[in-house]
Design goal:
Layout lengths: L26 H11 L3 H5 L12 H13 L5 H10 L1 H6 L7 H10 L1 H17 L21 H28 L1
Helix pairs in contact: 1-3, 1-7, 3-8, 4-6, 7-8
């Protein structure tokens, strides 16, 4: 039997394509597609012609926040760590590493973009049959209502996503202390 060479210190001559490391059915692609639908141009224009460091594109930060909510509401520090250790987060961040403060400010200042992305996520997931809407009935009583089961389910899913986001902001505050 012949042993392979230990290549831990071998440098790459050609940059690696992260997409080859992530399975084709991985949720990171879904998150990227959702973020691509959201128009962040107005938010990005706020940073045009301002002094200081280059700002991260709002699309990049939105992708990271959406992925963190998908993963259960991670703190901004954990998102920052994952951009350095998790291939999926590296892909969504385009191999950039925004600081936890930048991510936290984005969560607080651009909640409207995040809400829009949550709605788009549910809409696309429902259209693509990724979310199953189950029939729920208690009794046969008919009550006149101005809503449908689809709207109710969407509102419940939005509430869950917002709870994950709030949980991640609370984690950030605890870690700051």
């Amino acid at each position: 039997m012949v042993l392979r060479d230990d290549t831990i210190n071998q440098t790459m001559l050609v940059p690696m394509d992260l997409m080859k490391l992530i399975p084709k059915d991985h949720p990171r692609y879904f998150i990227k597609n959702v973020a691509d639908y959201i128009d962040c141009s107005k938010a990005n224009r706020e940073f045009a012609d301002t002094p200081g460091e280059f700002a991260y594109p709002r699309e990049l930060l939105l992708r990271l926040v959406l992925m963190s909510v998908f993963d259960g509401g991670l703190s901004s520090r954990e998102i920052e760590r994952r951009t350095q250790t998790d291939v999926g987060y590296m892909y969504l961040a385009g191999m950039q590493h925004p600081s936890y403060r930048t991510i936290l400010r984005f969560k607080r200042d651009y909640s409207d973009l995040i809400d829009e992305a949550f709605k788009m996520t549910i809409k696309i997931a429902t259209e693509e049959d990724l979310v199953k809407i189950h029939h729920v009935s208690v009794d046969g009583t008919k009550i006149k209502a101005k809503t449908s089961i689809n709207k109710l389910t969407n509102e419940q899913q939005l509430k869950i996503m917002k709870q994950h986001l709030e949980k991640s902001i609370k984690l950030d505050e605890e870690e700051d202390e």
